[in-house]
Design goal:
The protein is α/β, with parallel strands linked by helices and 241 residues long. It has 9 helices and 7 strands; from the N terminus they run E-H-E-H-E-H-E-H-E-H-H-E-H-H-E-H. The chain has a 7-stranded mixed β-sheet with strand order 3-2-1-4-6-5-7. Helix 8 packs parallel to helix 9. 41% of the residues are buried. The mean pLDDT is 91.
Amino acid sequence: MAKISIVIPAYNEEGFIGRLLARINQVDTEGAGFAKEVIVVDDGSTDATAAIVADFGGVTLIRQANRGKGAAVQRGVSEATGDFILVQDADLEYDPMDYLPLLKILAASEAPVAVYGSRILGQLRDRGWSLLPGRHPRQGFGPYVAGLLLTLWTFFLYGRWISDTLTAYKIYPTSLLKSFRVKTSGFETDHELTAKLIRAGVRIREVPIRYEPRSAAEGKKIGARDGFVAVWTLLRFRFRS
């Protein structure tokens, strides 16, 4: 049986991490043909995040000084033993039950493939078309527009249409991911990896997923600056080997 390694970068997520791990434990990945391991990388949290994780059996906890989400993901990847890696944010914006449709696509694919969970496609599936297609009613207008612009920018640079480049649900083949020399360490690492997957000729499949956005007051950490960094990162790795 193949194995999926679920890597969770976490920074000051004491309000969510316990409930998230409980939900992950309820997901029957073996029924979809995948054993699972869960790796939480505590990225220098100053709250009770690490203590909460330590109380969960069967979860690997790695602690490091605060270096950014991308660095935490890379640390988790280096420790992963699965055939595939799924990156999971530490909050509850995403539903772990959506692992199953992602894994279904993965299991049915013969060539190397990455699978992205698309919030845009999920909203279109669940709510239909609207004036702002694919936008969750509680999603801020700014983040929605930023996501749309990054989709267009990615298509312009790489000729690939990815409806939700900002999604936090991405599954990568482990061997391929470990072969990349990742240069970034923040939120922009997601875009560096997307660029490298496309340039390596790896097909990216998208699957509709559910999404419940949270606000900055609830702990949302990504901001407007990260959008500009994402634009630069996609441009930078379009031409850099």
